[in-house]
Amino acid sequence: MVLFNAATKELTAKIVYYGPGLCGKTTNLQHVYDSLPQDGRGKMLSLATQTDRTLFFDFLPIELGTIRGMKTRIQLYTVPGQVFYDATRKLVLRGADAVVFVADSQAPALESNKESFQNLIENLREQGSELEKMPHVLQWNKRDTPNALPVEVLNREINRFGCPTFTACAMRGEGVRETLTGVARLVLKHLSEKYGGGVEATPIMPPLPVPTAPAEAATESKPLEVEEISGNELLDEIEELPVTEAGGLPATASASRGTHTSTVEVPIVLDRSLFSGDGPVEIRLKLYIK
Description:
Layout: E1 3-5, E2 10-18, H1 25-35, E3 45-47, E4 61-67, E5 70-78, H2 86-93, E6 98-104, H3 110-126, E7 136-141, H4 151-158, E8 165-167, H5 176-195, E9 199-201, H6 215-218, E10 227-229, H7 231-239, H8 254-257
Parallel strand pairs: 2-5, 2-6, 3-10, 6-7, 7-8
Antiparallel strand pairs: 1-2, 4-5, 4-9
């Protein structure tokens, strides 16, 4: 759901990267994050658990363009791919304006791709949304692997609604920019049709540098440059966040407008041993700052 900020003349859209475990969602966002100037990106966060090292949550605003004189910004999120984090995936999907489904091109991953895509459809449907009517793209990642399936097979087995697709090798940064640009254009088109007015687009992100190292070296993974925090440290982390308006955007010149209330909602998964019962526990923290 698009958020409007009349004070700063900005509207904010939310894009979620979805897919099975280890398909390359986190790698995609890492390359996007690294390609942006430091003064134009938000802080990337990771919530670590005992059983999962996947980037659980991140927030990344990106300048996109203007609609009817309002700046358009994008928040990028990724979800954990493991099946036992389904409650978390539902929480992160809430209010999404577009989805990037990242599929692992390797033949053994075909069934997990199909299961994850069906899970995406069902989770959106539970929230009253239909993927067919929502802007979304598919990325065929890991095209450099020797057992990668033909694109025609992946398209036939997974792409049920005929959405745009992109080939990629996210580990090398190939196809990452094209995927983000493609889904961003769909969001712009959707917003312009819904709210009217022309679109004055700006570059989504600068071109990624061409790798100079040999292909063998380029495939080596590097540590994810994020800050990992535990559940107990989350409150301290939130206290350091700047006061924001709706949509999590900095409240510029807020002092001149007087006292206001802002809400920061952060999904978090704690160790289930801290609670009774077998299911995951959803906790919503709200911090009111005056």
